[in-house]
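Onboarding guide, step 5: your first structure request.
Type a short instruction followed by the sequence, for example:

Predict the 3D structure of this protein.
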Amino acid sequence: MLLVLLVSCTERQREGPKVDAPEQASSTESKKTSVVVPVTVDNIREGMVVFRNPKWDGAWGAKDIHPNQGVRGRIRSWSDQAGKPHGNSKGDLEQLKWEAVACVDWDAGEEAWKSRQGYRIGFLNEYWLATSDTAP
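The system replies with structure tokens like these:
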């Protein structure tokens, strides 16, 4: 009887503990949905990845000065509700003289002048930029 018990314990040691496969755990994580929020003076930070707000209000228009759809960029500088500049604002002071606007370094392929525009992050209650919790 002692021999049977020893053989049984030895077999369990070779098998190792039973755990869920990593594939099962990661498939659950991949189902997480991202949350998209407008960029505001309260949640903005330098380097934040942004894109055109998917809840674009048609009243805001469709002009060249607006952010293009499908393009990402990173916040370089912004002004708060009092018009005080933040971030790397040295070359952006002309745009940041208005309150609640941001300047963005857009990804490659965008026209250079688009990175010198001020994008509304609350100015006149307009929120042209958005970010998500899954953006790097």
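Each response can be followed by summary notes, for example: The chain is about 15% helix and 20% strand.
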